[in-house]
Amino acid sequence: MTAYNDFGELSRPIGRRVVLGGLGALSASLDAAAMGRRPPRDAPDQTRWTFDRLSDIGGVQTTVEGDPRLIDTPYGKAVQFDGVDDRLVIDRHPLAGMSQFTFEALFRPDGGVFAQRWFHLNEEAPTPSAPPSVTRMLFEIRVTGEAWSLDAFATGPGYKQTLLFQDKVFPVGRWYWVAQSYDGKTYRAFVNGQLQGEAEIAFTPQGRGRSSVGARMNKIDYFKGAVRQARFTPRALASEALLRVTPA
Predict the structure, then answer these.
(1) Are 29 and 19 in contact (CB under 8 A)?
(2) Is-contact 189 201, C-beta < 8 A?
(3) How far apart are the C-alpha atoms of 171 and 169, rounded to whole Å?
(4) How far apart (Å, rounded) are the C-alpha atoms in residues 139 and 219?
(5) Residue 132 CA, distance from chain mean position
């Protein structure tokens, strides 16, 4: 039986000889898990942002608004947002220039208002005098009681697509890896590696810009919950290569 750990690594069966002879290694593995469950090594073309601080996320200048806080989680430090006025603004659009992409994030929604736009990548206008750009992509959620649905959204010149399927719901208060990808033809959304839906779009690469985590760029639809990591890949990953949280 094939199994994956919380970061998408293939878990190999453990034989009797390994168990009897490798208790020290097993203990070390358990210690590593307790300290944050070390993620697998990324490919050279992948970028990972870890939200274990409130400054220089991914080595990029980061502005703090409100009072987001660092918390301890089973995966290491994460940033918790209060759903009122907390957000981080990071001076980079990590998918700028990519004609194909995969955008993944490890987060925990904690309820709150119905519409929450919690990870916003926004193209900036080329000059200060130019009109604001509306080209962007987002992770959003729709919350109803103790359940949520994923909303992935991308818009730019010649395309505008929402991937929202409110019949596919998940409990709040738990950790999830979510993903959206584009392979040159089809835009897809995933929760824990499971396809939520897809649509064909005429996507074109987005320009340089900034990211808002915890709210939409224009300071609305704040997020209640926590964010631990994000990973950006300049190609569409197959579902089995996506990061995922193993159900308890």
Answers:
(1) no
(2) no
(3) 7
(4) 15
(5) 25
As given in the structure block, the two tokens for residue 247 are: 């159900």
- Give CA–CA dist 157/135, Å, rounded: 7
Helix (H) or strand (E) holding 33: helix 23-34
Interatomic CA distance for residues 230 and 2, integer angstroms: 25
For strand 209-213 and strand 115-123, is the pairing parallel, antiparallel, or unpaired? antiparallel
C-alpha to C-alpha distance for 211 and 138, rounded to whole angstroms: 10
Given a contact cutoff of 8 angstroms between Cβ atoms, the answer to whether 196 and 169 are in contact is no
Do residues 236 and 189 lie in contact, with contact meaning Cβ atoms separated by under 8 Å? no
Per-residue confidence in pLDDT tens, the chain, 248 aa: 434 344 443 344 434 333 334 444 433 333 333 334 555 689 999 999 999 999 999 999 999 999 999 999 999 999 999 999 999 999 999 999 999 999 999 999 999 999 999 999 999 988 888 888 999 999 999 999 999 999 999 999 999 999 999 999 999 999 999 999 999 999 999 999 999 999 999 999 999 999 999 999 999 999 999 999 999 999 999 999 999 997 64
Radius of gyration from C-alpha coordinates of the chain:
18
Environment class of residue 13 by beta-carbon count within 10 Å: exposed (0-12), middle (13-18) or buried (19+)? Answer: exposed
Contact 116, 110 (CB under 8 A): no
At residue 245, the 3 state secondary structure works out as coil
Kindly provide the residue ranges of all beta strands, DSSP E only, lying in the chain, ordered along the sequence: 3-4, 10-11, 47-50, 62-65, 69-73, 76-82, 87-90, 101-109, 115-123, 136-144, 147-156, 159-164, 170-171, 176-182, 186-191, 194-200, 209-213, 224-233
